[in-house]
Amino acid sequence: MRFWLLMLGGLLIWAAHFMGLYLLSSASDVARDDAGAWNGAGLVFSMICLIAIAGLCWRCIVWLRMKPTDETRAFGLRLAVAGGLLGGIGVVFQTLVLVAPV
Amino acid sequence: MSSETGFDPELYKRFPTTEARPEGELEQLEEVWCGPRRPWEWITAINNNYIGVYYVGAAMLFFVLAGVLALLMRTQLALPMTGFLAQETYNQIFTMHGTVMMFLFAVPAVEALGVLLLPQMLGARDLPFPRLSAYAFWAYLVGGLCFFASLFFGLAPNGGWFMYPPLTSTTYSPGINADFWLLGIGFIEISAIAGAIEIIVGVLKTRAPGMTLDKLPIFAWAMLIFACMIIIAFPSIILSTLLLELERALGWPFFDAAKGGDPMLWQHLFWFFGHPEVYIIFLPAAGAMSTLIPAVAQTKLVGYRLVVLAMLATGFISFGVWAHHMFTTGMPQISINYFSAASMAVSVPAGVQVFAWIATLAAGKMRFNTPGLFAVGGLVIFVMGGLTGVMVAMVPFDWQAHDSYFIVAHLHYVLIGGMVFPLFAAIYYWTPMSSSRPLSERWGKWIFWLMFVGHNLTFMPMHLTGLMGMPRRVYTYLPDRGWDLPNMISTVGSFMFGLAVLLWVVDMVRNFRPFGNKDAGNVFGGPGLEWLPSGRYSLRSVPVIKSLYPVWDQPDLARDVEAGRYFLPGAPRGERETMITSPINAEPQYLQRMPRPSSWYVWGAIFTAGFFLILTIQAYLVSVISGVLAIYCILKWCWGLDRPSGPATVDVGGGVRLPTYVSGPSSHGWWAMVITLIVSGMVAIMACFSYVFLWSRRPDLWQAPPEIGSLPLTLGLLAAAGVGAWASQGALKLDRPRSAGIAAVLMLAATLAAGGAFAAEASAWWNSGLRPDASSQGATVYALLAWQGTFVGISLLMGPFVLLRWLCGLVSSRYPATFEVVALFVAFTAVQGAATTLLIRLFPGVGA
């Protein structure tokens, strides 16, 4: 299970980020409060997701630098790094919606 | 390689073995895996070599039928104001065209490819649940044909393939047409989910030893992701069809705004399924492209890892774009923007795959044979469709293009380019694996060019007609709007396309010869295991895999496999068997005993289809009888599980001994139940979303829940059910003289506790005065209760089933797998019940 979570970690964080932002914007719509506070929460959440992705990528890069002899593990780590980068780009792209003027 | 399960990888060095195989071993293998001998055995067959061909054939039949409907539509639209089809007939035809193409052709076709190809590709003897495959196929075929036949009675659904309420509510669709769609599609989804469970467990648990994840064929990756997407996405359509049917039949107002419902709920639920659905259709076809392009170009796929990542990313991101079908519905701007951003992002992984294909073709030596032509043609068409997809991801553009023929053009470019052309490429490429004759290359080229030109003639003008304002789903149009000529060109193109398909059918009749004792061989020089010599038992022996392209990189593989020099060269117990291996490193774990054909799953499928379809015509008693018979057949099917047989371990070759029985989290049955429960959990989650969503629309309609004092009783009984189920399988494992009896009684008690909890909660809500047809709160509360009630009902069947098995001496500590999965189900029922009870009792709470 750990192997799968690691390998898919970046994409899972992206998915959680997307759902989180959507839930926050939906809650903002229902509460009909000042959207600024909800957007702020969204930004904080996005930062947390980016930090998580960065941490995941860094850890995987450290393990890859130890040159694992297990090819399957190396495959999983490379996929984890690439998935993390892709997920990170996705998180940034989605977060731009929060900061760009509507 | 470090071990995942404790299996010593040094044992692989014993293979290929050198000693001669015993006399009669191959003959015994052939006898055990024999094909149908009597006429009815063609119906009860469960081997994937038969079911796979049946499945592909049925899917292509529905493709042809839906294609004929398209030709009828194009005939109607060739000229303005023709009277070829009446308006109501046209409505039924375009609805059926979309519905049959999406539900009865596209998903089953790619699933069928998986059923046919995966065991051979993975080095397995068959899929892990062959009777489930057969059940899924027959339910699909019988149900699909009955559903299509509704056209001939004027009862076909007529609300578009996505059936939006309020158009499809009883006010505007009073007939049973919509019910055909709702009930017909509902059980077809069950069939698809059964196939998905099969594929997930097959890809992860039945691979040849040494086929680690980094050596997993790209098609297998695609099928794995496809199946996981089905598990997450399809529950949404199952729920939405149930809710709309409840509204139509019983007046529960999920989508009726007058009573607090919201038609937007349908759109969210439908498109949460509907958008992943198109990627569910695309990914296996992309996997096929990534497999046959290297073969056609005779070089390895460029960027295997990136293509795997791209497919995974497609799978994930596709769940974040559903509301791009709803840009014009008045959603909050910021939500729309999220979906617009994700919709642009989803094109990136698709682009990665396209560039990988182009790079592979450039790196190799492209041969323009028929599979190659269809692959390249599909790539061109898909890219064009993808470009218009990014256009409509821009909200302002979509506001102009939505519901116009521009969208029709876009969706046909991506679906035909991304799925139909790759499917035809796959058919031409893999037919020699199943048939003693390949299809004709000469005819294939004609078919390709007719199809390619026909497709572009049909759908390219639709971009123009759409931008000129022609709406979708109109049965005719006025002259002199500038739409006449493009529509005529589209019609001409569609008949070219139809001619191509007709020629393909003729080519199949002339050349496709399955089920024989020999196949046409590796005509296109493919590198995968499916091209090794094989029989109905798949490979004579299961090789140790050292490469992603075993036929290319391990030159003596075919000879050694055929000589039985690898794993499982025979049938060690004289039965049908396949090896179960671990999910990451494919280390041998145990030998799975596989079933022989019988008739219970066929009858079960027929009665399941009957239950749903007869409900449609409101013959309730007959429908209930059919349902009861379906349950009886399924219980008879399950009665034979966990029978003792043979020694505890056997030699599977090279002196390697494997257990013949495993229970618990390593067993394939456990995995299947866990996946089934994920499906169920997703339905519950979507139902909870529906509850919260409808509250957010009309919080003023929400009344207080029942008194809090009644809650501990419900939760207490559910806790007892969960603990009882868990304790029962713990008791069985103790292996004392009375363990089996205690376990069976505990299980029965657990199911009764779950039943008691349900009765307590349902009566609490009924006594509170809330009624399901009164408001959206009533509808969603009773829908959640009904879902839980279904699980309780199944548990109450399982309890006595387990007790009866114990009384017949079939419950044993040595063979606990069936008992464990029942315990899993009952425990899940308890947890689901607790979660949904807490939601409806505590949110939004008293006085909210």
Automatic annotation (TrEMBL), chain A:
Residue stretches spanning the membrane: 42-64, 76-100
Key words, A-Z: Membrane, Transmembrane, Transmembrane helix
The protein's name in its UniProt record: MFS transporter
From TrEMBL, chain B:
Pfam families membership: COX1
Entry EC no(s): 7.1.1.9
PROSITE patterns on file: COX1, COX1_CUB
Bilayer-crossing regions: 53-73, 93-118, 138-160, 180-204, 216-244, 278-297, 304-324, 336-361, 373-395, 407-431, 443-465, 485-506, 600-621, 670-696, 708-728, 740-760, 781-802, 822-843
Pathways per UniProt: Energy metabolism; oxidative phosphorylation
Principal localisation: membrane
ATP-binding as UniProt keyword: no
Membrane topology reported for the UniProt record: Multi-pass membrane protein
Name this polypeptide is given: cytochrome-c oxidase
Species whose genome carries this gene: Brevundimonas intermedia
